[in-house]
Amino acid sequence: MSNSVKAAVIGAVALVLAAAVTAALNPSWWRHDAVTGGTFTIAGTVVDQSSNRSVGQALISVDGRTETYVTEDNGNFRFDLRGELPSDGTVRIRVAKTGYLPYDHTTGPTERLTVVLRKK
């Protein structure tokens, strides 16, 4: 076996060994922080803090995603997120409506989220 072939084999073994040691000491370097598949449902109502009346036509967005949603006239909303979902089981949602302070909170999947908006 020539010296150049020996050097190539030793280099390849060293590379594989380094990758194995790195994976053993820090497994998150290769792990993706999202889960693919499944459905993440968020549903609820947006209400005014002072009157407890429904707030219709409020814009809802999810941090890190392109989709946006709008509440119904009665303040109700429901959306299902698909595709890559956070591995910790939560998402950050933002709700905006003219005349109100923005709402910005983290939530898990739920069918009964009440978003309370405060007037400016």
What does it look like?
This protein is an alpha+beta fold and about 120 residues long. It has 1 helix and 7 strands, in the order αβββββββ. The chain has a 4-stranded antiparallel sheet, with no helix packed on it. A hairpin with a 6-residue loop joins strand 5 and strand 6. The radius of gyration is 24 Å and the shape is elongated. It starts with a helix and ends with a strand.
Which keywords apply here?
120 residues; elongated; 7 strands; 1 helix; Immunoglobulin-like; 3-stranded mixed sheet; alpha+beta; 4-stranded antiparallel sheet; single chain; 2 domains
Beta-strand residue percentage: 35-45%
CATH class of the largest domain: Mainly Beta
Helicity, as a percent range: 10-25%
Distance between the termini: 79 Å
Taking pLDDT < 50 over at least 5 consecutive residues as the criterion, the unreliable ranges are 25-34
CATH superfamily (homologous) name of the largest domain: Carboxypeptidase-like, regulatory domain
Strand order of the largest sheet: 3-2-5-6
Q: How many H/I helices?
A: 1
**Count of discrete domains:** 2
